[in-house]
Task: inverse folding
């Protein structure tokens, strides 16, 4: 069991709506990264937050945005939802240096209808 | 573009067999490599982390090796059990690509009783 918790576990939204996903970080970690995993594929990097600032971004449009709070927890916000946004969203807690294991939460399954 | 591939895509073996999962990556300049396990619809469980300066890591029945020069890592599972059935993901942090994982597509393992 890791100390990384994601909420909610499942979510159904309508196309065009907005959604916020949440993630707590592991104690001792200062970096949170978000990934999108489509069915049958490996996770794809969305962005990373370190000390409340975005510290790298993958190939995702600006309607994917995030926040990191002083306690290192994080939010992922997606605006103007599209059907293709349906996926498992994973957050990872780590140290910025990457010299220790990264730990993932259990994921949020988002379905856009 | 940095890429990670995994073969085979799926593997089915009888209980008790020793098996090897393969991971290849496009650039030898890596920071570290981590193997994860994913049960259906769940988050990722960290199995082993190998730093770029290391050649292998062991945990219980699992052994992971790293050969940066050939761009390969292998995950060896000894005496497989039905509980090992899951998807195994290889993830690489490349040195010049930001502090985020690039994931392979995974190997889906079924261990038959």
Result:
């Amino acid at each position: 069991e890791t100390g990384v918790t994601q909420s909610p576990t499942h979510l159904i939204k309508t196309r065009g709506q907005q959604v916020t996903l949440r993630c707590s970080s592991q104690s001792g970690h200062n970096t949170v990264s978000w990934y999108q995993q489509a069915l049958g594929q490996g996770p794809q990097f969305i962005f990373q937050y370190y000390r409340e600032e975005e510290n790298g971004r993958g190939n995702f449009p600006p309607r994917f945005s995030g926040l990191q709070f002083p306690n290192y927890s994080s939010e992922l916000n997606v605006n103007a939802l599209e059907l293709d946004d349906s996926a498992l969203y994973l957050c990872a807690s780590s140290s910025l240096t990457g010299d220790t294991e990264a730990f993932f939460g259990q994921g949020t399954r988002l379905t856009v209808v | 573009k940095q890429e990670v591939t995994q073969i085979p895509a799926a593997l089915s073996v009888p209980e008790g067999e020793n098996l090897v999962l393969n991971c290849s990556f496009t650039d030898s300049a890596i920071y570290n490599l981590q193997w994860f396990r994913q049960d259906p619809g769940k988050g990722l469980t960290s199995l082993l982390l190998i730093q770029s300066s290391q050649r292998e890591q062991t945990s219980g029945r699992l052994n992971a090796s790293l050969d940066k020069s050939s761009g390969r890592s292998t995950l060896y599972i000894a005496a497989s059990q039905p509980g090992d059935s899951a998807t195994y993901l290889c993830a690489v942090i490349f040195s010049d690509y930001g502090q985020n994982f690039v994931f392979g597509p995974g190997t889906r393992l079924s261990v038959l009783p």
Summary: The mean pLDDT of chain A is 92. Chain A touches chain B at residues 2, 6, 31, 33, 35, 40-45, 48, 55-56, 58, 88, 90, 92, 94, 96-107, 109 (CB under 8 Å). The first strand of chain A starts at residue 6 and ends at 7. The radius of gyration of chain A is 13 Å.
